[in-house]
Amino acid sequence: MTISINQLTSGMGLIVNDSIYVVVEYSHVKPGKGTAFVRVKLKNLKTDQVLERTYKTADKLEDVQLEERKLQNLYRSGDSFHFMDNTNYEEVVVDKETVGDAIKFLQDNLEVIGIFSDKKMQKMLLPMFIEAEIVQTEPGFKGDSSRAGTKPATIDTGTVIQVPLFVEVGDFIKIDTRTGSYVERIKK
Fold it and tell me: Which DSSP category does 101 fall into?
């Protein structure tokens, strides 16, 4: 669907160079001399690349409808991931490429947000924090809790992250999924 530049809003999906972009911010500029224009900051839905574009008020843009849906991770079958849509309980199958780097923190039954366009998932968003169990790490040494050091540890998804020396196998920790870093040890 084609829209005019005046219908632009933040969060709207646009097709630019055959890729889907989301409008991050925009500003209408009316110089004292000349015609008005709009400065737009766009973010690629798949690669997170940010573009800045300038459009004249007469330009037409290609709009794409984006829909967010809450999904629950069910299981993995080869390179396919199976999710359940929490609103209509339908199964959604997604390929490994669409899941992307989120695969490192994708736990069983984890609720995620899927961004859809034309009934096809374009991107998956993890929650900001997850709770994971440490399944493998070297044992800490007595007295190491006072020093600020880290060691590698494998969590229940198979991903290796850096944790403080006092964290042991069987401990539950909170992880920031945006950076992949340890936040705190939690009691379960």
Answer: G
User: What is the tens place of the pLDDT at every residue in 102-120?
Assistant: 889 999 899 999 999 888 8
Question: Are the C-beta atoms of 78 and 115 separated by less than 8 Å?
Answer: no
Domain ranges of the chain: 2-64, 67-125, 129-186
Residues 154, 152: Cα–Cα separation, whole Å? 7
The total of other beta-carbon atoms located within 10 Å of residue 89's CB is 8
Tokens coding 129: 């924090």
Q: Please name the amino acid found at residue 115.
A: I
The model carries a pTM of: 0.76
- At the top level of CATH, which class does the domain 2-64 belong to? mainly beta
Half-sphere exposure in the Cβ direction for 157 (13 Å, CA):
23
